[in-house]
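Two quick folds needed for the group meeting slides. Do the first one here.
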Amino acid sequence: MRLSRFVECGEMSCSDMVSERYLIPDAEVEPEKVRIVMISEAPPRDPRDYFYAQISSFYLQTTVQAFNDAGFEVSSMKDILDLCVYVTTAVKCVTIGYFIPPTVIKNCSLILEKEIGLFPNIKAVLLMGDVAIKAMNYIAERNIGKRMIPSGSTYKIRRKEYYYKNVRFFPSYLQTGKSYLIEKSKRKMIAEDIKSALKYVAVTR
């Protein structure tokens, strides 16, 4: 199943976004096999750096490194999918600047909610960074009337347990971007969170 055929934005009208650079993972996925969804921030400015673009894409390289740091030997997106992990972004269009307006995150959370809903057997969601956390809180607010992840620094809230519709959510840090390569403390916490999520759903290799 190619998810890009089932998930789309009907508006394409958000300000501060490059709507013609709209990206949904265009990969063949077996939805029933997915146990974990990893949600990053937004697509890269260069589509060749997207997770599913090519083996040398920057987003894929840092994500592969994050899984390797967590103790899982992967080298491609196929290897990550074989771990029952599907990777996507909270925002689907490329940003013009470095700040993503809350209205954009809220609008895209409608698409993200539909995307997550395609996986009937997910047990955990990794929220990689503030944008992913905010998007998930918008989804929770629409459905249960309150945010799911509390405010606060990620390092303070990441070790607590959060559940929504019998799925556990792991707030973490962004695993893409140049800062991933230099911020060793965050890189260590990302690896811990990936390992915890995989352990939670009992995925082993």
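Then this one, please, same format:
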Amino acid sequence: MAEHEDHGGGFLGGFFVGALLGALAGILFAPKSGKELRDELKRKGEDAFEEAKHAYSEASSKAKAIVEDARVRADELRREANRQVAEAREKAREILKGAEDKAAEVIDEAKSEVKKVKGAMGAGVQAARQELSKGEEKKG
């Protein structure tokens, strides 16, 4: 019989705890009046708007930072490209100057060879004339 009474007390205690929890849940989840509901919706809407403004502000700041970083990198790339173009131009000038110098040397050598050939031809023509005049003297 002691066991039976123990179950009865446990049942009664559980009943009271359940009733208390049910009442608390009823209070927490009870429908609100129209004014309370509107006020809560307004507050939640304002909270959501403030969160959206904050998120927009953060996104805008990040976007500005990204754009500025991209601009700085583009400037660096532009300066590097200009530097490389200037170096390439200078190397081209050096190569062209070297080619001009070499061409001038070749032209000078060619002129010298032409003078030698001209001199040799002149000497050949002179020798031929002398030989012709000797041959004419012998005939004569």
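Slide caption for protein two: The longest helix spans residues 34-139.
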